[in-house]
Amino acid sequence: MARLSRVCPIGIPQHVIQRGNNRQVCFGGEPDFAAYAGWLKDYSKKYQVDIHAWVLMTNHVHLLCTPRVENAVSQMMQSLGRRYVRYFNFSYKRTGTLWEGRFKSCLVQEEGYLLQLYRYIELNPVRAGMVEQPSDYAWSSYPINALGKISELCTPHPVYLALGSEPIERQSRYRELFKHHIEGKLLEDIRLAANKGMAFGNGRFEAEIESLTGRRMTPKKMGRPVGWRKKKADE
To answer: Measured between alpha carbons, how far is 156 from 164 in angstroms, rounded to an integer?
Structure first.
């Protein structure tokens, strides 16, 4: 069966996940993180993708980004993935695949949902038990978005900029968002949307994306469809 082409409307944010094959380690040390981050910066500029938030974990990567031209995210991830695999295989004297097939992604509604993805991504090391605070983890965008660290990789999204008119005010309000963890239904919804390639937003946003792309953006209901018994009896 031919796989579906990606849904990648220009100007709509995306949550992207790239995992190591069979959850194997894809970053063995600080030089690996630095290499990936450097090439992510280069390819995001080349293919015109704005990177708003990210975290590089031991065996996977999360990105929050917005494409500015058609097919930009796919081109960026393909070029980045190939470049990094060549580097990783050479560095560790190995051969073969590194990534778990195609990267996963979902479209994200800006109003009311985008900042939840910022939090979800930058809290990954905390949920994994690697650090106690997101500021303790070096390979994420939290130091940029929350603490004002300068970065050529990060492009602030307008929703983030709307948190305050001045950087200090913006960063303070951003840190306030991290007083509570992502959990429960919200956590499940974020993971489901990314893993299934659906939209993360309210019903209206989902309907708009379905109309725009012609693709289903909500999970199918479990069980048999309503009226199946009658239909079967009439056959």
So the answer is: 12
Report the DSSP pairing between strands 199-200 and 104-108.
Answer: parallel
As a whole number of angstroms, the distance between CA 108 and CA 122 comes to 16
| Cβ(217)–Cβ(210) below 8 Å | yes
Spatial contact of 106 and 193, defined as CB atoms under 8 Å apart: yes
Strands (E) located in 68-181: 104-108
What domain range includes position 69? 14-190
Query: How many beta carbons lie within 10 A of that of residue 71, not counting itself?
Result: 14
Q: What is the pLDDT of residues 173-193, one digit of tens each?
A: 999 999 999 999 999 999 999
Residues 2-54: tens digit of each pLDDT: 455 567 789 999 999 999 999 899 999 999 999 999 999 999 999 999 999 99
Q: 151, 163, 186: which is closest to 37 by C-alpha?
A: 151
Q: What CATH number is attached to the domain comprising 48?
A: 3.30.70.1290
Measured at the alpha carbon of residue 197, what is the angle toward residues 223 and 70, in degrees to the nearest 5? Answer: 145
CA distance 157 to 77: 20
What is the number of structural domains in the chain?
1
Query: Looking at residue 199, what DSSP letter applies?
Result: E
Q: Say which DSSP state 99 is in.
A: B
